[in-house]
């Protein structure tokens, strides 16, 4: 969780360097939302991979008995 927050902060800090005011805020929020979406997609892939591997392991163990 802390790693993801660090990535989002670093991503947000590097956007909107030449902008000022509301445009900079918009860029920061957009970068944070994009980064958050990417991290959620990665988390979904990890969870689905773990579920599929566990199901395969369970079915192979039951086939042996």
What are the key terms here?
65 residues; transmembrane helix; mainly alpha; membrane; transmembrane; 0% strand
The fraction of residues assigned to DSSP E strands is under 5%
From the helix content, strand content and strand pairing, which structural class follows? Answer: mainly alpha
Q: What is the helix tally?
A: 2
What is the mean predicted local confidence, pLDDT?
Answer: 83
User: Would you identify the regions where 5 or more consecutive residues have pLDDT less than 50?
Assistant: none
Molecular structure report:
The protein has 65 residues and is mainly alpha-helical. The protein contains two helices and no strands. The longest helix has 43 residues, at 22-64. The chain has one domain. The protein has helices at residues 2-13, 22-64.
């Amino acid at each position: 969780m802390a790693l993801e927050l660090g990535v989002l902060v670093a991503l947000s800090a590097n956007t909107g360097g030449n902008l000022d005011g509301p445009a900079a805020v918009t860029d920061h929020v957009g970068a944070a939302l994009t980064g958050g979406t990417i991290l959620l997609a990665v988390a979904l892939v990890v969870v689905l991979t773990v579920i599929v591997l566990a199901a395969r392991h369970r079915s192979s163990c039951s086939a042996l008995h």
